[in-house]
Write a structure and sequence with these properties.
Layout: H1 3-6, E1 14-18, H2 26-44, H3 50-75, E2 78-82, E3 85-90, E4 96-101, E5 105-111, H4 114-119, E6 121-128, E7 133-140, H5 142-153
Antiparallel strand pairs: 1-2, 2-3, 3-4, 5-6, 6-7
Helix pairs in contact: 2-3
Length: 154
C-alpha cells in the first residue's frame, strides 16, 4: 500500500494523484544508447582488446545503474491532493515528505522550462503559511496539480 493511502485521516479521500514525469528516464536512455553504440563499435573492430571490452561492460553497467536509480525514484515518489491536505512523499531510503492542510496552503507555484512546456513537466513550489516553501522537480502536469489545489480551496 502506498504512503499516501496509509496516512489518510478519517473521512479523508484522495481527489487527485500526480507522478513524476517520464523525462526522468532520459539520462538512463542516453547512457544506454551510448554504451550500446560503444559496444557495437568495439565489436566491429578487428583488433578489439580485452580492455576495450571491460570499458564496454562498465558503460553498460553504469547505464543499467542509472536506469534502476530513475525507476526507484519514479516508483517511490507520490503526490496527492485530498479533501483536507496536500500530501507529497519522495525517496526510498532517504525520505522527504510534506503534509500541508489545505487551509494552510498560501499558494502553489509552477516553474516550467521550454522543454517542460512542450513535454508537460515542471517544478511545483508549495507555499504554506509561515513562509514554508517546498520545491519538487519534474512533476507531470504541474498546472493540473495547481488547478486541483485551487479547486479544493474554493
Amino acid at each position: 500500500m502506498s504512503f499516501i493511502d496509509n496516512n489518510l485521516l478519517a473521512s479523508e479521500t484522495v481527489i487527485y494523484r500526480a507522478r513524476l514525469h517520464w523525462i526522468i528516464f532520459i539520462n538512463a536512455a542516453l547512457y544506454l544508447l551510448l554504451s550500446v553504440a560503444l559496444s557495437v563499435f568495439i565489436l566491429l573492430q578487428s583488433e578489439a582488446t580485452q580492455g576495450l571490452w571491460y570499458i564496454s561492460l562498465l558503460s553498460l553497467a553504469l547505464a543499467l545503474g542509472s536506469a534502476i536509480s530513475s525507476l526507484i525514484r519514479y516508483k517511490t515518489s507520490e503526490f496527492a491532493i485530498t479533501n483536507k491536505r496536500v500530501l507529497i512523499k519522495v525517496g526510498f531510503i532517504r525520505r522527504h515528505s510534506l503534509e500541508v492542510l489545505l487551509h494552510k496552503v498560501e499558494g502553489i507555484g509552477v516553474n516550467q522550462s521550454i522543454p517542460g512546456r512542450i513535454f508537460g513537466f515542471g517544478t511545483i513550489i508549495v507555499s504554506g503559511t509561515g513562509g514554508t516553501k517546498e520545491t519538487f522537480d519534474l512533476i507531470a502536469s504541474p498546472l493540473e496539480f495547481r488547478k486541483q489545489v485551487q479547486a479544493q480551496l474554493s
